[in-house]
Design brief:
Elements lengths: L1 H5 L8 H14 L4 H6 L1 H7 L5 H4 L4 H8 L8 H21 L2 H5 L8 E2 L13 H12 L7 H10 L3 E2 L6 H6 L1
Parallel strand pairs: 1-2
Length: 173
Amino acid sequence: MDYHDQEWGTPLHDDDKLFEFIVLDSFQAGLSWKTILNKRENFRKAFAGFDAKKIAKFDAAKVEKLMLDAGIIRNRLKIEGTVKNAKAFLATQKEFGTFDKYIWQFTGGKTINHKLGNHYQPIVSSPESDAMSKDLKKRGFTFVGTTICYAFMQAAGMVNDHMTSCHRYKQLA
């Protein structure tokens, strides 16, 4: 509830937090978000406080150490993908000045409000998440399929998918 009431769907423009959400969303692929949230602090410790500059320097020995860390999801491809994503994140940040400037272009710099009623079909992708996924992959990111990108957009407040009856919808609309 705290995550829902304080973070999820709040427009996010801080590069460090945006990178954290990319890391967490990529690890979430195939798992429940609750599992990731329960391990969030362990991920923070294991991945240098989500510092992309430090993670980009992780070597094979560090990856092996992370594979032994029971506090995180021990998936080699996702761990190696996080290192790869840190490098791609830094390159994108350098090109655009901020990652925020780059990532928010997919929604025209503003939140898309879906005005979801109580009887809606969950949204798992959109033309915006399709475009984001395609471009992130072109830039060298991994674990950024359209569904993961859409989940990232929801978490980072790029789309407001709170139901209109939810108190957070009214706060964020």
